[in-house]
Amino acid sequence: MSSSERHEALWRWVPRGLEPSDFALRRDFLLGHVAAGDRVLDVGCGEGLFASELARSGARVVGIDVAEEPLERARERDPELELRRVQDGGEWDLPDASFDVVWAGEVIEHVADTAAWLSEVRRVLRSGGSLLVSTPAHGRLRLLALTLSRRAFAAHFDPLGDHLRFYDRETLSRLVVQFGFERVEVRRAGGPPWSRRLLLLSAIRSRF
Measured between alpha carbons, how far is 183 from 132 in angstroms, rounded to an integer? Predict the structure, then answer.
């Protein structure tokens, strides 16, 4: 099965209209970093719920995904959205430095070639533009909790699962710095204080 077929198959198992996890929390984080008139790229836009929220806030949004199934659902739900399918692991058919903001919500953990993906993010983002990311948190307390249950550990790190990368605050921050981003801020969010579920990252594309 090709990666494209795998992505389509995964989406066919996802119920239509399912609200993304921690939707309100991630939406508020996103909208807090976007101004009316900003051109925003929603990477891995899925059914387009975040793209619709951005459009309603006055942003100019383009949503991209590697699967056609979620894009078809997004078009049915919000025909005004500008949506495009891109190749998994390939270059995006988008101009250099054409966006003020790139948003990737629960995407980076699924990416096989992280270096190529971040290179594309940097390419399409203008100098001084913002990168916004959410991804599951894997800090020491989360990992400790998983090690206490063999079943939970095996399920979480299933080698056939679609999560390929696992980040904590330090590894995520260090990664984006290596690809030319600065003023990096990563905070934990969601869940109880001792076991946050999410990492929320904001960073600025360096000018050189």
Answer: 12
